[in-house]
Design goal:
The chain is mainly alpha-helical. It is built from five helices and two strands; from the N terminus they run αααααββ.
Length: 119
Amino acid sequence: MTRSMSRTLRAEGAAIFLVALWAYHLTGASWALFAALILAPDLFMLGYLAGPRIGAICYNLIHSYTPVLALGAILYAMDVPLALPLTAILVAHIGIDRALGYGLKRTSGFKDTHLSVFS
């Protein structure tokens, strides 16, 4: 990963964060709910208590767009009222994490991510 690639992915994360904020606004859900849950995905870091491999799996599961969007679609199909607001919160969390340089974790260490610059 080059610095240029990392900057591009971080800018993409910032754009996704802004779109997720807009989408959350459109749901009409409470901003107090947003504030209360925006950091909740980081609880998945507790997986690191079981070691770096389990920790990376747990962290990456909730910090990847595909599982989050799949969960949102399932909740929406089940007619769960908070499906869209919760999905927007999770997507916003992932976006801001990526914008700040917190990427998907590698099993080699918590700070070793897909956004780490190697050259």
